[in-house]
Amino acid sequence: MDVDISEGKDRIGPMYRDRHVLITGGTGFMGKALIEKLLRCTEVAKIYMLVRTKKGKSPKARLEDMFANPLFAKVIELRGLNTLLAQCVVIPGDVTEPELGISVEDRKRIVENVSIIYHCAATIRFDEALKKAVLLNTRGTKLMVELAKQCKKLEMFGHVSTSYCHLNEKLLMEKPYPPPADPHKVIKAVEWLEDDIVDGITKKILGECPNTYAYTKALGEAVVVEAMKDIPVVIFRPSIVVPTWREPISGWTDNINGPVGLLIGAGKGVIRSMYCNSTGYGDYLPVDFGVSAICVGTWNFIGRKDFSRNIFHLVSSQEIRISWEGIIDLGKSIVAERVPLNGVFWYPGGNMKKYRWQHNLAALFFHWIPAVLIDCLLYVLGYKPVLCRVHRRIANGFEVFEYYANNQWDFDNAGINHLRDQINEAEKAKFKIDAGGVEINEYFENCIWGARRFILKETDDSVPAAKRHMRVMWFVDKICKTIIYGAFFYYFGMWLYNKVFAAAV
User: Listing from the earlier edge strand, what are the strands of the sheet with 311-314?
Assistant: First the structure.
């Protein structure tokens, strides 16, 4: 029976007591954060992690590498590494393989013991080959649903979807939506067809859907919705997942997806122009808020037995909105004044362009021409050219980003508002799912510190040198602008004189 809210006792953590949890995608960004949260803030008995061999590393070695991540430093200090290793059981497997690549013995262990499944595994690359995306995001989900149906103690199948998988809906409600195609037919088609054939017909298959990620995640969600009649399902739709707000450390991340990549690119002086609706905004979800919401949603479903809500939007734009231009301007000021990055190519600058032709022109002068000149200089000095390669990757990324940056979506989040009303103050502090206390400038400054420390591996003792380098870049930037603008006005003045005044004389 629930403890009354006024008593202020945590009911969420104890709810996991004696329960065994299976997690896919546990070595990914959100998966790692979810595992850390469960280990630190709940009484979960066992965590089974479906992990594949990658880059020659065994699943067990990958688990050990995961615990070496700074994200786990706090929970290791509290509970000890050996305890955590004993609590986490590695299940070698791969969601892209038939039968999930799981052995008979491991499958039996899962079927006999697991009561909660969190399916987080997915490829989040927007430009992923369609066949690979279908096998992972759609067929992998179907195979996980089939495994869940066999679990004798199953109380909840939690599917981590995305709030950006039904892009034809400008206002997304917390309800199922029809998929863009029959997921089972698409799975059979890509299984039967060769890779090059699938690649050749990808655009036709996608139709109006802009990329394989949104398409295959929508299909995967449809598979889960279909299974609601057979198993207890909760769907979580996070938006753009970004670094931690505070838990367990501020600004932690392990990738440069979303706005973090933009902040780094602008901060390094590499990104000087973007084709983007500057007044538009994206929806961001600090990953610690996301995993807390998953825990609270699980408690609501299992502990409170509230089956009336089983689709939750994990979003922020109903409470906090910051435009694309606001993010870039904030990032430039933070990097230029407080948290400089090492090896800056150019002083942070540039802006967003309303029209594509403006961006293309700016990219030519501020991206490609400097890249070619610097790469030529590097080649002459005996170094490997890098900047043109960097800008090719940026250009490819912009092709995907521009669709999202120049369109707008809003999301209903009545489910999370409902959860907020069900938890007491102790639970709100331990499992934060509201925007109270979030200060945008402080948050993005912590994001840049996080990117500096965890992605770029730049140590704090290099900050003074980075600041000196930034001052030099500022001086160089001013000189170059003076020369460029001076040359422009000189030649424009000469042209005007020859056309107008000289002709009149």
Answer: 88-92, 46-51, 20-24, 114-119, 156-160, 233-238, 311-314
The candidate with the shortest Cα–Cα distance to 285, out of 433, 93, 137, is: 433
CA distance 454 to 248: 14
Query: Bridge partners of 49?
Result: 23, 90
pTM of the model: 0.90
What local confidence, expressed as pLDDT, does residue 294 receive?
Answer: 97
Phi, psi (5° rounding) for residue 412? -75, 135
Q: Which helix (H) or strand (E) holds 472?
A: helix 463-496
For residue 3, the model assigns a pLDDT of: 44
Q: What 3-state class would DSSP assign to 202?
A: helix
Looking only at the bridges linking them, the beta strands covering 171-172 and 156-160 are: unpaired
Hey, where are the domains in the chain?
Answer: 11-238
Mean pLDDT across the chain, nearest whole number? Answer: 88
Q: How far apart are CA 236 and CA 130, in angstroms?
A: 23
Q: Report the candidate in 118, 106, 237, 253 with the shortest Cα–Cα distance to residue 172.
A: 237
DSSP structure class, residue 364: I
Q: What is the CATH number of domain 11-238?
A: 3.40.50.720
